[in-house]
Amino acid sequence: MKFEDIEIEDVDFEAMLEESFKKSESRSDLVTGTVVKIDEKDNLAVVDIGGGRDANLALDEIKDEEGNILFNVGDNIDVLNMGRGRISYKAALGRAALNEFISEYDEEQEYIIEGVVTKKNKGGYVVEVDGLEFFMPRTLSYLSSKPGFEAIGKKVKAVIVKVDKDKGSVVVSRKELIERDKAKTDEIVGELLENKEPVVGTIKKITSYGMFVDVGGMDGLVHYSQISHKGPVNPSKYFQEGDEVNVIALEYDKKKRHLSLSIKDANPDPWADIDSIIGVGDTVTATVSNIEPYGVFVDLGEDLEAFLHVSEISWDKNVKHPKDYLTNGEEINVEVIEVDKEGRRLRVSLKSLLPKPMDAFVQQYRVGDVVKGKVTSITDFGAFVKVGSVEGLLHNQEISWDKSKNAKSELAVGDEVEVKIIKIDKDAGKISLSKKALEDSPIKAFAQTHKNGSIVTGTVKDKKDFGVFIALDDNVDALIRTEDLHPLKFDEIEKGQEIKGVISFIDENNDRIRVSVKRLERQEEREAMEQLNLNQDDSMTLGDAFGDKFKK
């Protein structure tokens, strides 16, 4: 029931009603006349209403739906004398019907009517119901008299409060029904708020912000935040109009006549005893209720909802959107991985119940195996290559022996590449791959012609705190540690400078070479000594060899 058009006035009802009856008696008489003329040109019929008086009747009033005239000249016709020479056939029919209604009226019964306001005057309104006209005094109408409010055409519901058979009038009251409704509302609300017990209501309307529920003849709003212990939900996903639900009254705004209801408070809160319902590690059956790009919300029953993050859907690390794996309404088994009682949040995992791709991989492959895979993504540090059902990392330094090449310069997503498995970390779920391991190592080739003690010359490529890197050959670099630079000074060395040294260490398996300048001086002295020993004869003494040097 809407009350925005209610306005209460202090008016003398009895005086106003009598005035209305007087006007009815003086202006409206039901008489039987005789048709004396039909003038289709002027669209009227002339009727003799007795006493030597003629009155004009609009011809349209005595035509049927097809336009045929229902009376002929000389026919008797019942009309209502409207005064000032005006009569009405239709009004006469209405008056006759009203008289019939009044004659059959049972004072022991209550009559509630629904009609439309068709006329108004100072005293009140005329309400038409199936061709019958009832009078509704202004003070019994609860209709506003404020500027801009239009009563004509308004549908109203009212109760008959007085029937005067002598005067042929029926008085109805909208006020009576409204006040009854108020009293009933107050009774319902008082009982709901006092008992605070769940009651059964019927859903009448579902909106985006909640549902209107009928409780004992009164409508209350269940806001979408008061539907479920899961939190705010879309009511249309869980209910239909006509469904019965348990509700509890929260509050009542008398001014707005607004009743707030709650479904969730009428049902047990699962979080109050969550430990006995569910725990980490439990496997449960859930229904997919909402899919978002970042994850999926699943319904666990018991008025509980859990979140399945996109990273927990599949072992595939390249899940673009959950909808590629799941659909709304689908039932799935998930494992509970977090129960946050304080935050009232549950997290579950789907992939934890699926076979781990790494387990299958280690059964099929070993370190050293040469396999083919497809490039799935490229990063600044390398490329990920899918081998079977898992991805391995092909680091930039494993792309080529040529250090100027990397994943971005040599590969593209979708490329099929042949690689060698160089490391498997099952616990961490990581696989390391190498492409250059399938090619001959430049250092291995270099080691065929060089060995520890070989004197080499290289060009400075880079300087670090711990030493200097020099290029010895194509794709062959060596390290001179800081302590092996003597007699050279670290601060004076520049990129591009040539440095001569001796190979002090070659590791073909790990592609490492170290060079020492410090050892070069000692080795050159030793080689000079060896050469000197070869050139001297058996009788030569040390003094002979260095005789001139000791002379002054």
UniProtKB/TrEMBL annotation:
GO MF, any single term: mRNA binding
GO biological process: one example: translation
Record keyword Ribosomal protein present: yes
Any one of the GO CC terms: ribosome
InterPro entries, per database record: NA-bd_OB-fold, Ribos_protein_bS1-like, Ribosomal_protein_S1-like, S1_domain
Top-level taxonomic group: Bacteria
Occurrences of domain S1 motif (ranges): 110-175, 190-264, 281-351, 368-436, 453-518
Pfam families recorded: S1
Keywords: Ribonucleoprotein, Ribosomal protein
Keyword Lyase: no
Family: Belongs to the bacterial ribosomal protein bS1 family.
Protein name, as recorded: 30S ribosomal protein S1
